[in-house]
Please model this.
Amino acid sequence: MNRTDRLYALVEELRACAPRRVSARELAARYEVSVRTVERDIGALQQAGVPIFAEVGRTGGYTLDPSRTLPPVNFTPAEAVAIAIMLGRAGGTPFSRAARTALHKILTAMPAADGATARDLAGRIRFLADPARGEPASVPAVLEEAVAARRVVRLTYVDKAGAETERDVEPVAFSGGSSSWYLIGWCRLRGTFRVFRTDRVRRAALLDETAPERRVEEFDEEPRDFVMRPLEFL
Model:
């Protein structure tokens, strides 16, 4: 059994046994590998976002929260590749890290044969990129958390003139396109809505304060040449 198939099998084994804990020794015997290999595989799955919990001790082992994982799904290989194409364009966008773990979960939940076919098809897809533009700057993870959790964030920000300021911001939304992403928020320093380009944020720290609920519709200063559209789930 190759490693990809084994990772898939480990997730399915833990899902089937949940909430009972399964020891690394049991898993090693079942898949005819060393305990160390099982521990390394479990660590890789945990880093990818699979909710596997470990408990040490003589009666310890691994268990998986089935409510937070996908059961085997009926994505076709082409559908999985279509999702991968969209997620592959998520670099530099908010929640790009979550996009990578989401794709891993989809592939892990697919039947092994379909997953292998999807990987083969993905190997025949190529993106065109302008090397002069370089990789897009990543949105700081702390800003993603601030928007998702509605937490006030303290920013050290450099404006287009090079002036650096520190300010507390109530995050409201992200806005952006192919080249740059922006945080829209209520700036307590200025007492009004402001737009912050995320690659100009030098430092950001979450504060222990929930931001008041504000709607992005209250912000009415869209760029003249653009229309702001919401992200929609079909």
Observations:
- The two ends are 38 Å apart (CA to CA).
